[in-house]
C-alpha cells in the first residue's frame, strides 16, 4: 500500500476546457475550503455561502451539495464543467480552524491572497493542531465565542 488513504480520495469528472488545469486547481481549492469548514463545525448554510463566495473570488461558478459523509462540488467556467465528490464527516468543532479558513476566503475575495498562497494557507489550516477542549468548554460555559490569532487575521 502506498500510504494513500482512500477515505481522503476525491472523485472528479470533467468536461474539459483548454487551460482547464487552473480551473481544476481553483475548483479543488473551493472544495478543500468547504471540507475544512464542514469538518470543523461551520454550519452547512455558512459553509455553502463561503464556498460560493470563494468561487466568485476565483471566477468559478460553484455549487456545494452536502450529503451524508461527503460534499459534492459542481463547478463551471465558460464551457468547462467539473463535478467532484470528497468525503468529509463533521466530527469535531474547531472554531479556530473555521475562523482562519473564513479569513483566507475573505482574503482571496479581496484580491490579497492568490491561488498558490491560498492553497498553502488552507493546507496549513487543515493541519493545525485542534484548539484545546478545556478552552472550548470554558468559552462555551462563559457564553463567549472562541477567538483565535492567525497570520491572516484582520480584526474580529
How do the SSEs run, as a string of H and E?
Answer: EHHEEEHHH
Poorly predicted regions are 1-7
In this structure, how is the largest beta sheet organized? Answer: 4 strands, antiparallel
Question: How helix-rich are the residues, as a percent range?
Answer: 40-55%
Helix vs. strand class? alpha+beta
Number of helices: 5
Oligomer: single chain
Computed over alpha carbons, the radius of gyration is 16 Å
First-to-last CA distance: 45 Å
How much of the sequence lies in strands comes to: 15-25%
Number of domains: 1
Shape: globular
Kindly report the spatial arrangement of strands forming the biggest sheet: 1-4-3-2
On the 0-100 scale, what is the average pLDDT?
A: 82
Count of individual beta strands:
4
Fold blueprint:
Blueprint: E1 11-15, H1 20-39, H2 44-57, E2 61-67, E3 70-77, E4 80-87, H3 95-109, H4 115-127, H5 133-142
Antiparallel strand pairs: 1-4, 2-3, 3-4
Amino acid at each position: 500500500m502506498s500510504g494513500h488513504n482512500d477515505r481522503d480520495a476525491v472523485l472528479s469528472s470533467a468536461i474539459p476546457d483548454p487551460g482547464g488545469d487552473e480551473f481544476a486547481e481553483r475548483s479543488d481549492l473551493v472544495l478543500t475550503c468547504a471540507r475544512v469548514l464542514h469538518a470543523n463545525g461551520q454550519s452547512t448554510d455558512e459553509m455553502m455561502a463561503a464556498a460560493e463566495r470563494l468561487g466568485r473570488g476565483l471566477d468559478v461558478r460553484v455549487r456545494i451539495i452536502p450529503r451524508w459523509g461527503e460534499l459534492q462540488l459542481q463547478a463551471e467556467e465558460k464551457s468547462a464543467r467539473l463535478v467532484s465528490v470528497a468525503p468529509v464527516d463533521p466530527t469535531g468543532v474547531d472554531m479556530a480552524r473555521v475562523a482562519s479558513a473564513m479569513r483566507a476566503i475573505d482574503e482571496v475575495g479581496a484580491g490579497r491572497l492568490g491561488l498558490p498562497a491560498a492553497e498553502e494557507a488552507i493546507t496549513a489550516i487543515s493541519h493545525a493542531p485542534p484548539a484545546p477542549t478545556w478552552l472550548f468548554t470554558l468559552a462555551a460555559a462563559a457564553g463567549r465565542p472562541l477567538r483565535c490569532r492567525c497570520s491572516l487575521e484582520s480584526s474580529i
